[in-house]
Amino acid sequence: MSRYLIKRIAMMIVTLFMIALLTFILMHVVPGGPFTQEKQVPQAVLDALNEKYHLNDPLWKQFLDYMKGLLKFELGPSFKYQGKTVNDFIGNGLPYSATLGGITLVFVLLTSIPMGIVAALKNGKWQDMLLMALATIGVTIPSFVIGTGLMYIFSYQLGWTPTYGVDKWQGYILPCIALGGYSVSFLARLMRSSLLEVMGQDYIRTARAKGISESRVIVKHALRNALIPVITVLGPTVANLLTGSFVIEKIYAIPGMGSYFVNSVTQRDYTTIMGMTIFYAAFLIAMIFIVDIFYCLIDPRIKYD
After folding, report:
1. Tens digits of residue pLDDT in 57-84
2. Band of pLDDT at residue 4, cut at 50, 70 and 90
3. Cβ neighbourhood burial of 214 (10 Å; 0-12, 13-18, 19+)
4. CA–CA separation, 248 vs 103, rounded Å?
5. Which residues are within 8 A (CB) of 292 and not within 5 positions of it... i.e. 6 or more apart?
6. What is the DSSP string of 156-212?
7. Rounded-to-integer distance, Cα 159 and Cα 151, Å
8. Least enclosed by CB within 10 Å: which of 8, 100, 198, 256?
9. Per-residue pLDDT reduced to its tens digit, 212-236
10. 85 has which bridge partners?
């Protein structure tokens, strides 16, 4: 197990390095720079700004300097907001994104898994068809369409929830539903198909032949194995939810990480783009690693040598 952990940690470090390198290259391949959009700014001022932020240095030196700061967990200053650093943006936006993502994650788990179980146990009946029809709608309709539709109905027409912001707890209701709609639908369909496959296995038929109650067969034997594919995709899902949705945060004016990332892309703020991308990638890789470890807890047959 220790050898496996060392190997995975080494792979995580290499992956993060490659993501940082590719992001850096792509930013500099695109024509322009963080100060090229400034209107009526003398060339001398632009040269001074480039000199201040070391943008005149060779690319290899810029990347090396950035990686040195990254080792100290310093993601660099923002080129567009004086006195602000990327660490400040993450520190300010992460609590909002994490709160929204945490509530959405609870909503997704409490909704999708029961939906999948009921659909599998009522396979072919009206409950199954109704739940899978809802899941299909949730998968096919984009989150921004769901978000704007919910806002128009429940905020504008009925006035039950705020149209923007999360100053009140009611402000989290519509963003959580819009953000978690796809995940609920996808996980529900995956849970249904996985449970149906497990219920057809020989050991399930053997357990029934021994006279074990149906509820115990489902909970103790079928459900535990059926959850493995769900947990596989749960790692990236958790990372996506906790780091925030760019579109949903923009629609509901939530000051999370998504708004900072969108603004950094439009403004060509190099350090903010790099910092947000690396932070998200690190979180995603960590969640996938945690999911792999949980495999051993769910299924003792899985061993990492």
Report:
1. 788 888 888 888 888 888 888 877 777 8
2. confident
3. exposed
4. 14
5. 8, 304
6. IIS--S-SS--SSGGGGHHHHHHHHHHHHHHHHHHHHHHHHHHHTSHHHHHHHHTT-
7. 9
8. 8
9. 777 788 877 788 778 888 887 887 7
10. 77
Q: Is residue 250 within a helix (H) or strand (E), and if so which, with residue range?
A: helix 246-251
Nearest to 175 by CA among 245, 128, 272: 245
The answer to whether the CB of 115 falls within 8 A of the CB of 184 is yes
Going by C-beta distance under 8 Å and a sequence separation of 6 or more, which residues neighbour residue 287? 235, 236, 238, 239
The dihedral over CA atoms of 89, 95, 100, 102, expressed in degrees to the nearest 10, equals: 130
The CA-atom distances, in angstroms, between 111 and each of 78, 163, 178, 229 are: 40, 24, 14, 17
Q: Are 111 and 103 in contact (CB under 8 A)?
A: no
Instruction: Give pLDDT tens digits for 170-211.
Output: 888 888 888 888 888 889 999 998 888 888 787 777 877 877
- Residue 299's Cβ-side half-sphere holds a number of Cα atoms within 13 Å equal to 18
CB 103 within 8 A of CB 176: yes
As a whole number, mean pLDDT of residues 118-136 equals 87
DSSP string computed for 60-125: HHHHHHHHHHHHTT---B-SSSTT-BHHHHHHHHHHHHHHHHHHHHHHHHHHHHHHHHHHHHTTTS
